[in-house]
Amino acid sequence: MAVAVPPFETFYESHKTEVFRFLVSRIGRDRAEDAFQETFLRALRAYERLEHGEHLRAWALTIANRIVLDGVRRQRPQGTMPDLVTEDGRPAYEELAPLTEGLPPKERAAVVLRYGYDLGYDEIGTALGSTEAAARQAASAGVRRIRSQSGDRPQTFAPGDLPTPRRSPASANPEEQQ
Amino acid sequence: MIDSPTFELDERFRAAAAAEGLLDVAYDVFDDTAMGPLLVGVTDHGLCRISFDPNPERELEQLARVYGPRVLRSTKPIERVHRELEEYLEGRRRDFDVELDLRGQPDFYVRVLAELARVGYGETTTYGTLAARAGNPRAARAVGTVMNRNPVPIVLPCHRVVGANGSLTGYGGGLHRKELLLRLEGAIL
């Protein structure tokens, strides 16, 4: 049987910190605050229609990512990246942030969601408003671009620096339930 | 520095969620009332829950099942109930003016709770009397069950229902709370 949708409070408390950090890493702290509220309001508007409580983390991150992309479309050029701390033990997506800075928005989103957040290509496809195949393509194009850039500047990046995904892409797609 | 949503950001979202009418239930927990911690839930229709359970997780699941999954802590919609409860517990209020939302309660429960609502401040009645008023004089035991599952204790005054011999009998929130409320109202010394 499918997992029941938890009370929104439980969902919100479980994911608010990660969503906020994701937004800060993508668009900086100032813009992250508005995007944070918009992410969870959007989640709340769709919450009633969810049929089960699986993949809610991926669902939250894809909503956040879509809001980032909407913002990028609305107001080019993109805001500057925040300075990132460089201490050990920081999450994978923070390590990725400086590497992906120069990528086009879709490639960057695909690489960050795949390697930083461990989402499946189907989930990323939904987040980017396209398909699983397009997401796979965007991620590999992004990785190729990072590698070629690092070829120019080997001191900043070696191909082995890309974190390894913790699991293989999931097949279920949370947005399909809507 | 760890990046987390600030308290202000968190509260701003919770307020916006309620202001946009996106919640099935808004709730809040009042930690230090004379009755101990109280969890209070309201819907668009009115007050739907008062709980003495200090661990709200079970409550939230229950609320989500009955009213819908969009259950979120949000202070603003609760303000009025909060004020009335405070006034009552300080002895400055005898009747509650808030609307109730008793959706999801079986018919018999609604009938019994409606009769219960007529039992005035400082009075007591018995399970048998209440059963008779609700149209079934032999249902005293069933009335006891309804009292035990009263979704909004204090406001619907199940503490004013006692045994035929005058003993306090029982209370969903623990007998000491029943005693405290009856003493507050001057029904017992």
Please report the number of helical segments of chain A: 7
Provide the succession of SSEs of chain A.
HHHHHHH
Helix amount of chain B: 25-40%
Count the beta strands of chain A.
Answer: 0
Q: How far do the termini of chain B sit from each other?
A: 57 Å
Q: Which CATH class of the largest domain in chain B applies here?
A: Alpha Beta
Strand order of the largest sheet of chain B: 3-2-1-4
Explain this structure to me?
The complex is a heterodimer of chains A (178) and B (189). Chain A is mostly helical. Chain A has one domain: PhyR, sigma-like (SL) domain (Butyryl-CoA Dehydrogenase, subunit A, domain 3, Up-down Bundle), CATH 1.20.140.160. Chain A has helices at residues 8-27, 29-47, 56-74, 92-100, 105-116, 121-127, 132-152. In chain A, α4 (92-100) runs antiparallel to α5 (105-116), α5 (105-116) packs across α7 and α6 packs across α7 (132-152). The longest helix of chain A is centred in the C-terminal third of the chain and has 21 residues, at 132-152. The radius of gyration of chain A is 16 Å and the shape is globular. By secondary structure, chain B is an alpha/beta fold. Chain B has two domains: 7-89, Double Stranded RNA Binding Domain (2-Layer Sandwich); 107-184, Winged helix-like DNA-binding domain superfamily/Winged helix DNA-binding domain (Arc Repressor Mutant, subunit A), CATH 1.10.10. Helix content of chain B is 38%, strand content 15%. In chain B, the strands form two sheets. A four-stranded mixed β-sheet of chain B has the order 3-2-1-4. A two-stranded parallel ribbon of chain B has the order 5-6. In chain B, α5 crosses α6. Chain B is globular, with a radius of gyration of 18 Å. At the A-B interface, α1 and α2 of A face α1, α2 and β4 of B.
